[in-house]
Amino acid sequence: MKALIIIFLTVVIFGGAALVGYKVFLQPQIALKKEQAQPPPPPPPDPTLPEFNKCVAIRKGGKVIEARDAFYGFIERYPESTKIEDAKNLLGEINTDILLSTIAAPEKESYTVQKGDVISRVANRMKTTPELIMRANNLPRSMLYINQKISATQVDFSLVISRKRDKVTVLNKGKFFKQYAVLEWPPLYAKTARKEGPGGKVLPMEKKMGKVTDKISWLNGQRVTFNDKGYLSSTHWIQINIKECTLHSVAEEGGQKPTGGGIRLTPDALDELDAMLSKGDAVTLEQ
């Protein structure tokens, strides 16, 4: 009888301890694992989405200038929106559509070609580039004719090259204009080349300031200028006086390669940058 009582008490004591241990230790761990196994809850709807859709609808309606103004307002009011990158990309497309075409815009100035005018002289007078005049007026060649009416926009471009964002951003008079995705970095600026400090912490890269020093166009392995036949079909480099920062779309032209490999963008990006930029335009390379 005593043996049965002892066995009963043992079962009660150890069973109770096991139950307490389960509730105190195992049950919370099981519940935590179940919770972790659940998919994350969907993010709350972005309250800026209706405003973004309004901007898109204006563009689809063919109101180019109104769409540009709407997107500028959106990126200024909602910099933290989940649609901010989409808004910037669409705004950049609109900006270049206006700048590099015959689309009428309030900022475009008209000029009537006079006797003795050449395109480079007219570009200086209008504070723009010869290449931009050609693109904005759909000119197949750089030749101008007396009494020819052309239009162009005064520009003051600068570049911000960001390793963190993998973007080359164009600013016009300090204001966002367009951004381009970087396809390939040279080894010097690749993420694997970033320096580490104590404890493995990645050290921020020192901001570097420079400028555009040259624009080089290539056709069939030969250098050409905007005055040459076939220029509009050429490929382009934008040389910058920051180490290994030449912008290019083709790794080798005319038997030469950009120093250090350069920064590779799409051919369309280089076509636009060649038309927009001038020697001396400011460039910032940042983290």
UniProtKB/TrEMBL annotation:
CDD domains found in the cross-reference section: LysM (cd00118)
Pfam families cross-referenced by the UniProt entry: LysM (PF01476)
Superkingdom of the source species: Bacteria
LysM domain boundaries: 109-152
Signal peptide region: none
Protein name: Peptidoglycan-binding LysM
Protein's organism: Chthoniobacter flavus Ellin428
